Amino acid sequence: MQAAIADGVISGKRLWTGRVLSGLVVLFLLMDAVMKLIKPAAVLKAQAELGWPDEITVATGVVLLICTILYAWPKTAILGAILLTGYLGGAVAVQWRVGHPLFAATLFPVYMGIALWAGLCLRDAELCEMIPLQR
Length: 135
Fold this sequence. Notes:
The protein is mainly alpha-helical. The chain has helices at about 10-40, 40-50, 55-70, 75-100, 100-105, 110-125, 125-130, and strands at about 5, 10. It is elongated, with a radius of gyration of 17 Å.
């Protein structure tokens, strides 16, 4: 890790890996938010299976959209990551509550959260320095 960061400068490969990883997370979350905003039948059915009323689908989509935009914008990326971590934690709780398979559905938001923070850490040397990993 230290070889990739010298005096706060990140190597080009590491920066682009972080951008691609963050971009994939943003694309997935934007798709999820837009689907909640346009409310196709499949989304409403999935929401009902999770125990959520149709009335909150658009509001949930708006919250997700705002958090994702904050994450995608470099100056607010850390705030967006924190907010998305809370959103994804709620998704884990909902999946767990309804008894969905652990590794396929319940932990999927955890995988997204790991990718979200990994992408951000790869693009932000100062953030990476604050994470207490063994060096």
